[in-house]
Amino acid sequence: MFAEKTIRKHVTIIHAYSLMSVLQRKIVNVLLYEAIKGDGRINNHQNSVAVECNMPFSMLLKAVKFNSNNTQYLKESIDGLASLKIEWNLLKDKVPTDISFLNLRVLHGAPTFYQDNTINFSFHKIMLDLLVNPSIYGTIDIDLQSEFESKYGHALYENSTRFINLQKNKIISLDTFRKILGVPEDKYPSMRELTRNVISPSLEEVNDRANFAVSLDPIRVGRKITGFEVLVQNKKNTIKSEVSCIDYENEKMHKEIKVTFGILNESILENIINNYSEEYIQEKINYTKKYAKKERTGFYPIPYFISALKYDYKFKEESKPDGSQEKESNEQIEWEKKLFALQAELNHWEKLSGYTKAGDNQEHVKNMQKFVLETREKLKQHYLEKPIKMEAV
Known about the structure:
This protein has 393 residues and is α+β, with helices and mostly antiparallel strands. It is built from 15 helices and 9 strands.
C-alpha cells in the first residue's frame, strides 16, 4: 500500500511549468498535504474560493528538512508562491469541466507569519479539488520528496510518478520535456548542455532516491533529438502486487475488465485500477464495446481500451458545437498531436525491428515488420486527413 504521508495529485497540476526552486517545490507539497489532511483548516466559508489553513512553522521546517538558521529565506520562498506564474496541464490531460486554470496561482494570497511560530496560508478551492479522488494522478511521498537537492531532480521525480508501470512508454516532445522539468527557455539551449546540466544529474538523483527507476530514450528526426520516450518502472525490491489485495470497491471493476478483455498482465491491470477512477474506467469500457469489434477470442481488443483510457476517447454525441474558427483550430491541434504520436510509434517499432537478427524467431520478426508497415500506412493515411485551413472571404 502507499506510504503513510502521501498525496495524490491530479496530473494537470503535476505536469506544469514554473520557475520554482527545489525548496519551493517541497514546500508546496507539504502545504497541500496539511490542507488535505484538514487538521489546520480555519474560517472556511461555503461560498469562499479560498481554503485557509494554519500549521506550526517549526513543523514546516522539519517537513522540508530545512537545516539553515536563515528562516527569512524560507519565509520569502513561501511568500513568492502567491505571485509565481504557472503554466498548468502541459500534457493536455482530461480536466473536470468545471475547472479553469485562468490566473490560478500555487497559493491563494500571501501567507501570514505569526509570533506564536505559526503560519497561515490559503489555497484556491480548485487546487484542493484536484487532490480529492483525482481520475488520473501521481502519488507523491511527502518524506521522500523532501530528500531531493536539485529542482530538476525533484521535478523529474514528481512527473514520473504518473508513468509508473504503464503498458506503453510515454512520448514527450523536447520542448514540453524542458518545461515539465522547469528549465528556463534561455537556459541550456544545446542538447549537450541540457544533458550535462539537467538530464543526467536528475536521472541519477531520481534513480538513487525513488522506489522506481526512470529511463529516457531519445526520439530522433535525422540526427536531431525531438523528444523522449519515458519508461518508469518499480524497482524489483519494492514491487508489491496490489492486485492481490484489491478492495471491495475495485473488485467489481476488476472482474468486469477481465470479462470484457480476457486475462490481462497483472502490472497492466494494476496500473489501470490504481491510476483511473472507477467511473472513468467504466466509461472507456462502454466506449470500447460500442466502437471496437470483438477479436477471434471473443474478447474486445485490449490496445483499443488502453488508448481510450490514455487519450480520453469520447462518444460522438458528447462533442459540443463550437464556432468554426475554434473548431478548425481544435482539429489542427488534434491532428498534430496524433501526428506526433504516430511518428513516435513508428520510431518505436523501427527501433525494435532493427534489433532483430538472423536466427530470431521468424514469427517475431514478421510481427515487427508487420507493425512497421501498419504504422507507416497509418501515418500515410493521417497525412491525407490533414484539416484544410479555410481562407477568410
